[in-house]
């Protein structure tokens, strides 16, 4: 995973520790009521935008220093949160699994060794590691070869029983099925890149003379490619896996190279094909077929791979709003607490954590916010953001949030192109959220007086093709400008340098566009 510079890390740690402390007051004692009326007037004016006339808007702003509610409208209304759901999943995972938690992937032998022969089965067992790459499975295969095993007389058994067999969320839209941000959830999975987009393959096209050349990352014959694309004057190509199959159909015209992240239909079967191919490459022949099932009792471990820690995984998860990480962590929590790697068990863990921390209005249907039946109130989100400040893991969790206007992709994340060159830049730490007709922004900002503020902005049911994220930006910037020492009506000064991304999905979901 990409690392930031030492200076950025040091500065971030200082900021996080300041936010993690018990409620602090500004350096100078200020009139509690000063500036609040102007702030209320300005936010009301921002929300009077005609685009919200038929929409629903819930906004809450709270001082972390005093506990005072500075602004609220529809604070208790149940609204669709989109990826603001990940705030709850990430916090519950940090609390339940711990920042040192690692996923493990192991290879075991079930049978007897006789020289270079394994008389029995070879088992590949996973626990949901979303960071596994094809090269990691190849490294496991190399370790098996290094053990001296050349022939496995039995089967290759893929053990994905750490999680249940439900691969897709109950409420997920069928037309998202082939999109990498709605990939199936399995205890055995693989990512094509170091964003760790588990359960997907990158399918690339390029003009090669008068033909269109197709390649995949990683190289795999698991997908069946039907290439109907032609070379043309411009690139206008559709790369899509057919519903319920492993067939990817490519249509349109190609002039310049293009690529698409495509989910696989069955991550366990896909991983098994990668691993079997690597075994063969390293001279290990498996005579039997590939099957699925639980690891037999008494199987002996031959090789293992451990993931990065959860504390490290929070960065690509939250900065890039990775849906699959959220769902894998949800099932991992269920497995740890209830012994069941299911959505229902994991969501109970997240919900119980939220309620134990004072959250009242909550309806969690998945861990990522892809479900339109997820529901939170802005007041509940602010309550969670307030409660977790006292947790020992808060500094790491806080720094995993996208940071406004910071161009570094693994620092700014989904806010890297928003609020640049404003008082909110490198100040606002917040989670974005986007679905068609839904946008949300919730997190933390430090005022002009140095007062820590917590906020949640949720906009639902607008009927525009362009998301009104600039409204969120204006409110966040106004909060960064908020002052009790020198109160001022700042509406006229508000601006958002760098347009908020257009469209209805997180910019990180629209690969290969990078937010």
UniProtKB/TrEMBL annotation:
Segment forming the signal sequence: 1-20
Domain of life of the native organism: Bacteria
InterPro entries hit by this protein: Beta-lactam/transpept-like, Peptidase_S13
Keywords linked to the UniProt accession: Carboxypeptidase, Hydrolase, Protease, Signal
GO terms, molecular function: serine-type D-Ala-D-Ala carboxypeptidase activity
EC number: 3.4.16.4
Gene Ontology terms: biological process: peptidoglycan metabolic process; proteolysis
Similarity comment: Belongs to the peptidase S13 family.
Name of the protein in question: D-alanyl-D-alanine carboxypeptidase/D-alanyl-D-alanine-endopeptidase
The organism of origin for this protein: Nonomuraea turkmeniaca
Phylogenetic lineage: Bacteria, Bacillati, Actinomycetota, Actinomycetes, Streptosporangiales
Recorded name of the encoding gene: dacB
């Amino acid at each position: 995973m990409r690392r930031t510079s030492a200076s950025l890390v040091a500065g971030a740690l200082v900021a996080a520790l300041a936010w993690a402390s018990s409620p602090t007051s500004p350096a100078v004692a200020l009139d509690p009521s000063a500036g609040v009326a102007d702030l209320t007037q300005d936010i009301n004016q921002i929300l009077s935008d005609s685009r919200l006339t038929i929409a629903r808007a819930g906004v809450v702003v709270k001082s972390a220093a005093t506990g005072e509610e500075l602004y609220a409208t529809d604070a208790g209304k149940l609204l669709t949160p989109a990826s603001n759901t990940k705030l709850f999943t990430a916090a519950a995972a940090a609390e339940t699994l711990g920042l040192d938690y690692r996923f493990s992937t192991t290879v075991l032998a079930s049978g007897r060794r006789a020289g270079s022969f394994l008389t029995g089965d070879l088992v590949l067992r996973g626990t949901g590691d979303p960071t596994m790459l094809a090269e990691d499975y190849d490294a496991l295969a190399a370790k098996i070869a290094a053990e001296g095993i050349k022939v496995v007389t039995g089967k290759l058994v893929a053990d994905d029983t750490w999680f249940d067999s439900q691969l897709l969320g109950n409420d997920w839209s069928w037309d998202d099925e082939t999109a990498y941000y709605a990939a199936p959830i399995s205890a055995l999975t693989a990512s094509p890149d170091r964003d760790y987009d588990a359960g997907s393959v990158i399918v690339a096209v390029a003009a090669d003379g008068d033909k269109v050349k197709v390649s995949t990352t990683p190289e795999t014959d698991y997908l069946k490619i039907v290439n109907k694309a032609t070379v043309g004057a411009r690139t206008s190509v559709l790369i899509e896996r057919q519903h319920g199959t492993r067939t990817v159909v490519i249509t349109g015209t190609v002039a310049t190279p293009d690529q698409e992240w495509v989910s696989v239909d069955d991550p366990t079967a896909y991983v098994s094909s990668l691993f079997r191919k690597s075994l063969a490459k390293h001279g290990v022949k498996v005579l039997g077929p590939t099957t699925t099932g639980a690891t037999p009792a008494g199987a002996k471990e031959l090789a293992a791979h451990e993931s990065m820690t959860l504390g490290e995984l929070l960065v690509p998860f939250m900065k890039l709003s990775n849906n699959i990480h959220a769902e894998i962590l949800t099932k991992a929590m269920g497995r740890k607490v209830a012994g069941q790697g299911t959505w229902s068990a994991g969501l109970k863990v997240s919900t119980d954590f939220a309620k134990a921390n004072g959250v009242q209005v909550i309806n969690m249907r998945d861990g990522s916010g892809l479900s339109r039946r997820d529901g939170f109130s802005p007041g509940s989100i602010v309550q969670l953001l307030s409660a977790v400040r006292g947790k020992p893991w808060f500094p790491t969790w806080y720094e995993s949030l996208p940071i406004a206007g910071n161009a570094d992709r693994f620092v700014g994340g989904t806010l890297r192109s928003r609020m640049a060159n404003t008082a909110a830049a490198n100040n606002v730490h917040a989670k974005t959220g986007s679905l068609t007709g839904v946008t949300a922004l919730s997190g933390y900002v430090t005022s002009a007086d140095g007062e820590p503020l917590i906020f949640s902005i949720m906009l639902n049911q607008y009927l525009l093709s362009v998301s009104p994220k600039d409204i969120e930006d204006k409110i966040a910037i106004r909060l960064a400008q908020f002052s009790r020492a020198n109160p001022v009506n700042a509406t006229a000064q508000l601006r958002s340098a760098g347009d908020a991304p257009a469209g209805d999905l997180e910019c990180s979901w629209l690969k290969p566009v990078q937010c």
